[in-house]
Design goal:
The protein has 666 residues and is of the alpha+beta class. It has three domains: 274 residues, no CATH class; 114 residues; 232 residues, no CATH class. It has 14 helices and 37 strands. The strands form nine sheets. An eight-stranded parallel barrel has the order 1-5-7-9-10-11-12-15, surrounded by four helices. Helix 8 links the parallel strand 10 and strand 11. Helix 4 crosses helix 5 and helix 6 packs parallel to helix 7. The chain is globular and about 85 Å long. It starts with a helix and ends with a helix.
Length: 666
């Protein structure tokens, strides 16, 4: 590459890193149709010429989101809001976007998925993941299923999603294995590690689905994979489990990952054994940081292979691409294996190839919490300009040219990222987003975020907000269903509750209203707010849940002992009957106050102003009182509302909180 070309390439990467993108264009589509110039890491990978089957664990299906067609769990699951070293910052929740960008939410992840935070149950996202993995050269994705929690762990979850995966895999002519997440389900969590529970769990799954054409098989036997590093299953227990499961369900290709030990090698039903691997670097000095003790690991892995083969088993090599769990629960200086621009992965694959294994298992497909994902993403520990880069590297190692799969159906993808993915704006997308909104006197000013739909109008709603305050007259937009509970201050004690109905929003068009709560809680007490939706009950692991407001959201302290929370009510379907909103106490249930409740709806009227990209301020009309709560929201030409901004007592939400300032000082 010439010096000029290098400079141009560096400039392009720097532009991408800043989040800049041509408005109205589709970065994902450009990357899909026009792969970047030759990648030196992919070139090195292409010299490997791997012919051994490549599998991948783990394919996590625990991600949930409150959008898409019929989500299995209609709430944010595992994506969370940004937490640095375990500390929550209410100014950086998942409902807010990174300053300056309209599409990038705050995720508690190392990296950012191409599709944005997605719901694992969406059928076309499943299709896209399977096609993408196949095109990257993977023979099998191991679906990460886990025992049901808080009970005997004899059932897997989530089986409806697994059934959709099997059906889609069969339709595409590919297949998937199962990775049982039993290693991390100890007795302090459930009874899942009991031999009896494991026998029932595996037998039931294999009897029901083991012969399905979508389940990956070796020599006609369905592949079932689990880890036993903690020896939660003794040699005797493992022998018993294999024997009884196969008696019930027929032959199984058991893949076991653990240290190589003679008493386990003697178990005849183990078909593939995976021992020491590159994750060992995390547990020995310098704890993943490098330089890595490659030679020592190679000797251990070669010894493992010889012992496994001598016992008549197939040998599997487990390969990491990188690892990073510092973002969520990290300890600085540990828990991280750097990607080394992909060369750690390439070198690991080369070592694995030299061992002549029967199978190579790469890790992980989409674990954004531990940072080893291969699935297409905008950010892999930093922007690299090509969301498909790791798939291209993986395909190159098998002598393939990676071809990205067609993107999923638009309605199953995060509304925030649709414009960036598909290059246009349609109804149902996220509307214009603005940041840095501030009120000075009667002048409201802001900055438009990159990647928004074209703003055409700004709406200010104040008297149009549905509202309840203690002691209000009985016929407001939000009404108390148990008025005897109102002491004039909104006090809730013990197991008491305030029940509301919202006739002002009953049977309205499908939209996402936003809720503001002004509260004052005891030091060890919180509020739990349920609201009415289509899904009155849904399953989270072993528990039934209802739609609940996550009060770890944007908030601002008012300086009088109260604070205001501001949160969307995804999937809300108010009926105008008792139970539209229920407010209870959590924690120690110390006497607490609900001082005010406000609801903003995108379809509600208000004072409107024409705006465009050049408009960055407006003067509030005389009908709006700045000291009283009001909401400002921008709309695009398709009628989509952007993130609504609440102003309360002249202060804007979201705004830096004390938690935010503490984090900055730290």
């Amino acid at each position: 590459m010439s010096p000029v070309a290098r400079i141009l390439l560096a400039a392009c990467v720097a532009l991408a890193a800043s989040g800049a993108d041509t408005l109205g264009s589709s970065s994902a589509e450009r990357a899909r149709r026009s792969p970047p110039a030759e990648d030196p890491t992919a070139r090195e990978a292409s010299r490997l010429g791997l012919s051994v089957p490549l599998m991948c664990r783990e394919w996590h299906v625990w991600w949930s989101a409150p959008y898409g067609a019929n989500p299995a769990v209609p709430e944010w699951g595992h994506w969370k809001g940004l937490q640095r070293f375990g500390r929550f910052d209410p100014a950086t929740t998942i409902e807010e976007t990174v300053s300056g960008l309209a599409w990038r939410r705050h995720l508690n992840c190392v990296g950012y998925p191409l599709l944005g935070p997605y719901d694992s149950s969406q059928p076309d996202i499943i299709r896209w993941q399977l096609e993408t993995a196949r095109n990257a050269g993977l023979a099998c994705l191991h679906v990460h299923l886990w025992p049901s929690l808080w009970d005997d762990g004899a059932d897997f979850t989530p089986l409806p999603v697994f059934e959709e995966i099997l059906a889609t895999a069969a339709r595409l002519g590919v297949s998937v294995g199962v990775h049982d997440e039993i290693q991390f389900r100890g007795p302090e969590i459930s009874g899942a590690q009991k031999v009896e529970s494991s026998i029932r769990r595996a037998s039931t799954l294999l009897e029901r689905y083991g012969r399905h054409p979508g389940w990956y098989k070796i020599a006609g036997e369905p592949v079932y994979y689990f880890q036993n590093w903690s020896k939660w299953l003794s040699p005797e227990g493992m022998s018993r489990m294999f024997r009884e499961v196969e008696r019930a369900a027929g032959g199984v290709h058991w893949m076991v990952e653990m240290g190589v030990e003679e008493e386990y090698l003697r178990i005849p039903q183990i078909r593939t054994y995976l021992g020491a691997n590159f994750g060992w670097f995390l547990h020995t000095p310098p704890y993943g940081a490098g330089p890595h003790p490659w030679e020592q690991l190679q000797k251990t892995m070669a010894s493992d292979r010889a012992r496994v083969r001598a016992a008549g088993k197939r040998y599997g090599a487990l390969v990491f691409s990188r690892f990073n769990n510092q973002n969520d629960r990290g300890e600085p200086g540990r828990g991280r294996i750097d990607a080394e621009d992909g060369m750690f992965f390439v070198r690991s694959l080369a070592i694995a190839k030299d061992l002549q294994p029967d199978v190579i298992v790469v890790t992980q497909w989409n674990d954004y919490e531990e940072g080893a994902f291969l699935e297409p993403a905008w950010d892999f520990d930093g922007w690299n300009g090509d969301p498909y880069r790791w798939c291209r590297i993986l395909a190159a190692a098998t002598g393939r040219k990676f071809v990205p799969a067609p993107l999923p159906a638009r309605e199953q993808v995060d509304p925030f990222v649709r414009r960036r993915l598909y290059g246009d704006t349609r109804p149902g997308d996220m509307g214009p987003v603005f940041h840095g909104a501030r009120l000075e006197g009667r002048t409201l000013s802001w900055t438009w975020a990159e990647g928004s739909g074209d703003p055409v109008r700004m709406r200010i709603a104040q008297k149009e907000l549905l509202r309840w305050r203690p002691g209000d007259p009985p016929f407001g937009g939000v009404r108390l269903s148990n008025p005897s509970a109102d002491d004039g201050r909104g006090t809730i004690s013990g197991k008491g509750e305030l029940r509301f109905h919202v006739p002002g929003a009953a049977a309205g068009a499908a939209s996402t209203p936003w809720l503001a709560l002004r509260v004052s809680c005891g030091r060890e007490t919180g509020m739990r707010v349920h609201y009415r939706s289509v899904e009155e009950n849904y399953r989270v692991d072993s528990r039934w849940e209802r739609r609940t407001v996550d009060l770890r959201c944007a908030r601002i302290d008012l300086g009088d002992g109260t604070c205001v929370h501001w949160q969307p009510l995804h999937g809300a379907r108010f009926s105008g009957h008792e139970g539209d909103i229920i407010v209870r106490l959590d924690g120690r249930q110390e006497p607490s106050r609900l001082a005010e409740l406000l609801i903003w709806r995108p379809e509600a009227a208000g004072q409107e102003f024409r705006v465009d990209w050049k408009t960055t301020s407006l003067r509030l009309p005389g009908s709006v009182e700045p000291a009283e709560p009001f909401v400002a929201a921008a709309f695009d030409s398709a009628g989509n509302a952007g993130l609504p901004r609440l102003f309360y007592g002249g202060k804007g939400l979201p705004a830096p909180t004390q938690d935010s300032m503490d984090l900055l000082r730290d």
